[in-house]
């Protein structure tokens, strides 16, 4: 398990803390502490919740509802579970869940994969530039805004990929493979599921009236997160329709190629049918077949077959069957 602990100082800096110091700080009413738990086993998470003196219901929700999106307002705590797109692995979007247990003086976050990207670590060092006030609600609002921006970035990447596929389809439909369309659609579904599951908890947080979770100067961050998610949701709906158009275009192109092949087989069958008929007639074993006794019957038969085949080919060509 990886533990990162921070304390919000009076000058709005996120100061790193030792995990033991962080636990002690939670007992101080003047402290504002953030404890981040990553890659834990269930018993390790339960042990930490016990150390932080979590109530039975909040501990049960943390352990049982950690892998599904939700908003759980308790008496003196708020538990929020929100999905996010973890680090990409092999060009695939993996979905993880971030659980946030909010008290007046404490924020506990729990997740499997890392949220501490290099960019986010750099932002933590400059927290005084984006932290609106010295409160847990301000920290949570900033986190919600940051996660919504990640969803917007993923949506923008998908938009570029889909538009590039459309451009390739317009230039040469045979250049686009079915696997590419299916792959980008699976990515879109992953991002869309995250965005749709992020919206309800963020909306609930923005309207909560809990006395220990007041959004004053930090309300703009929460409103910005909502605006980002709504914009991403609308864009994803539009991109889903574009993927549908791509699939229709691909299927039409595949059907056209099949029709061309069937057309070629039809032409070849029509050309060789009279030749096959002649070969069948002359291959019959009757005693009286006068043409077989002619001196030049064999070369004459070959010439006749070539003339028939060439004539049929020219007929189909002039009538546009090879276009």
UniProtKB/TrEMBL annotation:
TM annotation in the entry: 262-284, 296-316
Origin: domain of life: Bacteria
PANTHER family, per database record: CORA FAMILY METAL ION TRANSPORTER (EUROFUNG)
Localization per record: Cell membrane
InterPro entries given in the database record: CorA_cytoplasmic_dom, CorA_TM1_TM2, MgTranspt_CorA/ZnTranspt_ZntB
Membrane topology recorded in Swiss-Prot or TrEMBL: Multi-pass membrane protein
UniProtKB keywords: Cell membrane, Ion transport, Magnesium, Membrane, Transmembrane, Transmembrane helix, Transport
GO MF annotations, alphabetized: cobalt ion binding; cobalt ion transmembrane transporter activity; magnesium ion binding; magnesium ion transmembrane transporter activity
Catalytic reactions of this protein: Mg(2+)(in) = Mg(2+)(out)
General function of this protein: Mediates influx of magnesium ions. Alternates between open and closed states. Activated by low cytoplasmic Mg(2+) levels. Inactive when cytoplasmic Mg(2+) levels are high.
Primary localisation category: membrane
Keyword presence, Transferase: no
Similarity section: Belongs to the CorA metal ion transporter (MIT) (TC 1.A.35) family.
GO-annotated cellular components: plasma membrane
One Pfam family per UniProt: CorA
Protein's name according to its UniProt entry: Magnesium transport protein CorA
Record organism: Novipirellula herctigrandis
Gene behind this protein: corA
Keyword Nucleotide-binding (UniProt): no
